[in-house]
Description:
Blueprint: H1 2-7, H2 9-34, H3 41-53, H4 63-92, H5 107-131, H6 145-152, H7 156-183, H8 192-218
The structure holds protoporphyrin IX containing FE.
Amino acid sequence: xxxxxxxxxxxxxxxxxxxxxxxxxxxxxxxxxxxxxxxxxxxxxxxxxxxxxxxxxxxxxxxxxxxxxxxxxxxxxxxxxxxxxxxxxxxxxxxxxxxxxxxxxxxxxxxxxxxxxxxxxxxxxxxxxxxxxxxxxxxxxxxxxxxxxxxxxxxxxxxxxxxxxxxxxxxxxxxxxxxxxxxxxxxxxxxxxxxxxxxxxxxxxxxxxxxxxxxxxxxxxxx
Length: 223
Ligand code: HEM
């Protein structure tokens, strides 16, 4: 029974919708947290410290952070696996044996696929840049996100990578939010406009909130 649900297209879409919402909630919190950079180094560096001590004294140092990390890894893997399996199914279902030219995927499907790939690559780069410091330009300092962020956005490629990713995220959320609503049965004809507006509003909010940081560094507002 469980296996049948998991194997069904609806099961996979449900996994995508739920994991997508989990990541979306994280991103709203992350975007708001990042804006602390506009209040100065103490504020955002203190926030980085709090991320490690939250849940204390019940929880040990970094336990809550690791819990969040585990939930996010599970969400990313579940989301990507279901997306891949659904897209294979989609390709197999096409009547390509009978026509020479394969019918091309819709604009929304292509945007979601490419957006997903860009975001997957970005997350790896981003962790190597601002969490482990492996590809970070300049001397990476643990628990000093203020200076680390300034270093990242003092390079042209840092700005390009982050801005491209954040714009891709906007498109992904805009369509993904609406898709998730359909899968979870929230969508209906009368609610279609409201859901599309909420999806677009969330996408614009996230994109602008994230983009504000590199723009702040580039304009010298954050220095
Ligand atoms: C301008 C945009 C962004 C900035 C300035 C930024 C900044 C940061 C910083 C400073 C950290 C490390 C926090 C710490 O360890 O104290 C971090 C972690 C993280 N960011 Fe971002 N971020 C941005 C966009 C994004 C986006 C678009 C995503 C996802 C699509 C993302 C996903 C993550 C994740 C998953 C972590 C956690 C890594 C860990 O476990 O430590 N970030 N970000």
